[in-house]
Design goal:
Rossmann fold, Methylamine Dehydrogenase, Chain H, 4-stranded antiparallel β-sheet, disordered C terminus
């Protein structure tokens, strides 16, 4: 029937996905390349989906619906966490559309029966089993003997269900020698249903067979014999595993598929339920068996498998324990069980401790006040988890996963052998991970925010990174020791590429040049001039003679590498951001801020295809090694995989919550790596489109600050999505003169944890809430009394970079990465209008204090003044020579201040736009500006780690505070409403409080770290890099002062 439909999507529910996940997949598939993510409101998402289901005829199949329905008295109903399926089925029955939803299930959902009785277009068809003669033949082939009538009687009872007949045949063979007549004459009669049959089979399993069944239920996909043998605990021989598998195959419990062994869906579901019930019984008091011998979550498994293990095993187990004993009772029992494990020699080196900690984490969301010293901890998942006062001293840790301290990822590069991947982070680091297990193998600082690329040489011996300012450094890839320093560029370096033979290196810069270097000796061989705008991307032709750079204005040029001469050139759309060359040089792909993906016929300048790709703009492109697949990434976080031959979207990869900055295919495997501004590095299977691994970074640099009106509390928003309320008294407790190095750990009020970096924190005009700008394209309003999010505005095209509210509380403005300035009306959070004109990212926005004017500062080096109520005309202020980072109006509206990467502050007459003063003093990029509430002072903060104070009347700096570096770049500033205090937030995760009149530093606090006071003394199994990373996040090698009692709540 597929030819009768435009789109066919089949999805098995055996792994119990959420209904929202299913609908998101449908939206992506039916919308194709035109996909624009609708608002988070369920009604808006449904409207989007059904619009496409009306425009096309789609067949949507949901297989095994019973997997998400209740059991027992709840049969036919959906549990609370799967209520989305009820809504989904109702929508298909009640809405008009041109598509078909086909559901298969072993039991009828009650919602379907009600809708069918109501006369809605929904029909239920009972699928007949095998015919009697075919059922009889199957039974005889399975070793069951008897007269035809008896065999067909048995077949009729099981309605011709092939699996049930095979299971029954095996039971008859084992118990009655295959004689069906003896079986039918027994008192018990036939087994009631498939689950009773499976109960009987499990009762006869040996210990090895049972262990294999449980491991296969945990694996969720086919497993090779050798892998299975390596996992089973206590260890057994491969021969024993093979024998047990043959026995299980004969009993129709295990099937061979794709080079491994797995369970049939019904058996998988039954075995999973049985495992969860057994684990619950053990935790509540029975001797440990499955809890000690099986890892409930395998940290070396593919990410989508781990997600299924959490959803179907760990979370149901935690829910069952809480339902039985209550939350406090369940936690207390698990803590006592951890103590029992310590006293049992066999258990102490098993999977038990890791499983217990994972269940505790699932119940409480964190781990705290635990003694795990001396135990073996296996397969522990502590990514994105807060852990405090936990003692691991002397423990052996195997296959554990931790968060790491890194910020957004700018660029990535696979080693030519595919064994490692290097990343350049936004916090001036290079990090190197093993690709097999995600273990950190190296990390070192590269002190420049002007060098984006990180790149392995073709032979894998060199690694290109950034040094001070615009210096490029070639390091030894193994030792990370500097080999060469390449100097010459005068501005940010955006991209780099080696020739295939490694004989030259090309770099593209915002200084409008491309330079060609000899990577063995260091000199610049050619400086290629010819572009009038920043050169954003480049590619080296496979023949080694051609070089193709592309500039921000869309100009693409072919250069001869050997003599440095320009050959051909053509123009794409302005705002170009990404370029990729096919492995054979026959195709060139380009993309930029207009969201289109263009395929060119080599270097001819002829367009082969022009495709809508990402509404928010294309940020990265990459061809795989075969050239059959092209990946494109968007500023909104989605990744599309394109079939190069057909130019159709093969799959959409979703998971990033902010812009994707770079893509790289594995040199040998079907894997794609993506680098995100959401502090994640993700690796995907490019054939199945499934996530394989995610590395999570935690960096809590303070991007936004706001005082409460009474100056008793300070609100902060950080890179890790955290929002805290700090009592101002906490700063005083640290003592005056505190710096980053002497900052005290504090316990602020944790208001929220959002999924992406917080770019703005503003108190609502009524002071009852906070407005939070977030890099996941949203602005949220939080009620401070309830801490609930009471309003959300989603900007579908771009990350929210800055946030401002006008004095009357009527308007909210945000800045974006693609240069558009949306304005929202409050409190409805409805889009009021959007201003277009910038050609670069809008880094900062500010409202005039009394007039309906909005100022926006952009990476295009301009400030624009927009009239919110008048004409569409606007004013443009020019004068800065590099990207702008900050804009602010004085409280009386007389002055407008702007600052950025050119290290200057420019003061403007706010009424006329006339330039008044240029203020010099900072030695690096200025990130923040704030006017004193009385208007006579302006504070500025910069990457040079200093704060400077400026007198507005004199237009000059005044002696104030300390100009010595505080310890890390300063990103944010806020004055208290009375003007007595100034708060500053740093990239180093610290907040400083200053006395304005005296310039004294009153105190410093640190954003809470995720592994605060976690003891890792003498822990076995950690690499040096892992140990250093844990210390960065709060862990210590000092022994705790006391041993925490494991039953403490």
């Amino acid at each position: 029937i597929a030819p009768h439909f435009d789109v066919v999507i089949w999805r098995s529910l055996v792994n119990a996905p959420d209904a929202a996940e299913i609908q998101a997949q449908w939206r992506r598939r039916v919308a194709g390349a035109a996909m624009v993510e609708p608002p988070p409101d369920p009604d808006a998402q449904a409207e989007y989906l059904f619009t496409h289901l009306t425009q096309q005829r789609c067949l949507l199949v949901l297989d095994n619906l019973e997997s998400v329905m209740g059991a027992g008295t709840d049969a036919g109903r959906f549990p609370a966490r799967f209520h989305g399926y009820t809504r989904l089925i109702r929508q298909f029955a009640e809405r008009a559309h041109n598509s078909l939803l086909l559901i298969t299930s072993r039991e009828q959902p009650q919602i379907c029966a009600r809708l069918e009785r109501a006369g809605l277009p929904l029909r239920t068809v009972e699928v007949a089993g095998m015919r009697p003669d075919a059922s009889e033949l199957l039974l005889r082939q399975s070793g069951v003997s008897g007269v035809s009538g008896d065999l067909q009687r048995l077949a009729a009872y099981y309605s011709g269900n092939p699996l049930a007949l095979l299971l029954a045949a095996e039971a008859i063979h084992d118990l009655f020698g295959g004689a069906v007549a003896e079986y039918l004459q027994t008192e018990s009669g036939v087994f009631d249903d498939v689950r009773i049959l499976l109960d009987q089979h499990f009762a006869r399993l040996g210990s090895v067979e049972e262990a294999i069944m449980m491991w296969l239920a945990l694996a969720r996909e086919p497993v090779a014999i050798q892998t299975l043998a390596a996992q089973i605990s206590p260890p057994i021989s491969t021969a024993a595993v093979m024998g047990a598998l043959r026995s299980l195959q004969r009993r129709a419990l295990v099937e061979r598929r794709g080079g491994g062994f797995t369970l049939q869906n019904v058996v998988m579901e039954y075995t999973t339920d049985r495992l969860v019930q057994s684990l619950q019984t053990e935790i509540l008091g029975a001797p440990l068996h499955f809890l000690a011998n099986h890892a409930l979550v395998k940290m070396r498994a593919k990410e989508y498998i781990r997600s299924i293990q959490e959803r179907l095993i760990l979370i149901p187990l935690a829910d069952a324990l809480v339902a039985h004993a209550g939350r406090v009772g369940a936690v207390t029992r698990l803590r006592r069980l951890l103590d029992d494990v310590r006293g049992h020699t066999a258990w102490s080196s098993s999977y038990a401790a890791g499983n217990i900690l994972n269940v505790l984490r699932s119940i409480e969301g964190s781990l705290h006040d635990l003694d795990v010293s001396g135990l073996t901890v296996r397969d522990l998942n502590l990514r994105d988890t807060h852990v405090e006062h936990v003692n691991f001293a002397g423990a052996t840790i195997k296959d554990a996963a931790f968060s790491q301290q890194f910020g957004h990822i700018l660029r990535i590069s696979y080693h030519p052998d595919g064994g490692t991947i290097a990343a350049r982070t936004g916090d001036e680091e290079i990090r190197i991970w093993r690709t097999t297990d995600g273990q950190l193998t190296g990390a070192f600082t590269m002190p420049s925010n002007l060098i984006f690329p990180v790149l392995y040489s073709p032979d894998g011996r060199l690694l290109l990174a950034g040094g001070a300012h615009t210096d490029l450094i070639l390091c030894d890839a193994d030792s990370c020791e500097t080999r060469l320093v390449l100097r010459g560029h005068r501005h940010r370096v955006w991209d780099a590429a080696f020739s295939a033979d490694g004989r030259y290196l090309a770099t593209a810069s915002a200084d409008q040049t491309v330079r060609i270097w000899d990577p063995q000796t260091g000199p610049c061989v050619h400086e290629l001039r010819g572009h009038d705008h920043a050169v954003m991307a480049l590619a080296v032709h496979p023949d080694g003679a051609g070089l193709i750079p592309a500039a921000d204005d869309g100009r693409t040029q072919l250069w001869n590498v050997h003599d440095g001469t320009a050959e051909d050139g053509w123009t794409t759309t302005p705002g170009l951001r990404a370029l990729a060359l096919h492995p054979d040089g026959a195709l060139l792909a380009t993309g930029g801020t207009d969201g289109a993906l263009t395929l060119w016929e080599g270097t001819s300048g002829r367009i082969r295809a022009h495709l809508p790709a990402h509404a928010a703009g294309v940020s990265a492109l990459a061809f795989d090694a075969t050239g059959a697949l092209l990946a494109s990434a968007g500023e909104a976080g989605a990744i599309r995989l394109w079939d190069v031959e057909t130019t159709r979207v093969r799959a959409v990869l979703e998971g990033h919550t902010a812009a994707v900055g770079h893509l790289a295919f594995h040199p040998h495997l079907s894997q794609l790596a993506s680098a995100g501004w959401d502090r994640t590095l993700r690796i995907w299977d490019s054939q199945s489109a499934q996530p394989l691994m995610t590395l999570y970074g935690l960096r809590a640099g303070v991007r936004a600050l706001a005082f409460a009106p009474d100056a008793q509390r300070l609100y902060s928003g950080s890179d890790d999505g955290s929002v805290y309320a700090w009592p101002v008294a906490d700063f005083m407790a640290g003592g005056s003169g505190a710096t980053d190095r002497t900052a005290r750990d504090s316990t602020p009020d944790d208001l929220a944890g959002l999924p992406a970096a917080i770019s703005g924190v503003v108190c609502t005009p009524d002071q009852r809430g906070l407005i939070l700008g977030c890099w996941d394209n949203t602005v949220r309003i939080m009620d401070l009394a309830t801490r609930a999010i009471v309003g959300t505005a989603r900007w579908p095209l771009e990350s929210t970079w800055s946030t401002a509210v006008n004095a009357t509380g009527r308007w909210l403005a945000t800045g974006s990465r693609i240069g558009i300035v949306p304005v929202w009306s409050l409190p409805e959070m409805r889009l009021y209008q959007q201003f277009e004109g910038h050609s670069g990212r809008v880094k900062s926005v500010a409202f005039h204090p009394t007039l309906p004017l909005l100022a926006s500062a952009s990476a295009d080096e301009t400030v624009r003044i927009w009239d919110l109520e008048g004409s569409a005309r606007h004013q443009v202020l020019r004068g800065h020579t590099k990207s702008l980072m900050a804009v602010a109006y004085s409280p009386d509206g007389r002055f407008l201040a702007t600052a950025g990467q050119d290290r200057t502050i420019r003061l403007w007459d706010a009424a006329t736009g006339v330039h008044l003063h240029t203020l010099h003093g900072h030695t690096n990029t200025i990130f923040a500006l704030a006017f004193h509430p009385h208007g006579h002072l302006l504070a500025s903060a910069a990457e040079d780690q200093t704060i400077r104070m400026w007198d507005m009347d004199a237009g000059a700096a005044i002696p104030w505070g300390r100009v010595a570096p505080i310890g890390s770049p300063i990103w944010s500033l806020a004055f208290s409403h009375d003007g007595r205090l100034l708060a500053s937030g740093s990239s180093g995760e610290h907040i400083h409080l200053w006395h304005v009149a005296q310039g004294d530093l009153l105190g410093t606090v640190r954003i809470p770290r995720p592994y605060q006071d976690v003891t890792i003394t003498d822990v076995h199994g950690l690499t040096a890099a892992q140990r250093a990373a844990l210390r960065e996040l709060g862990a210590t090698d000092r022994m705790p002062r006391h041993t925490t009692h494991p039953t403490g709540a």
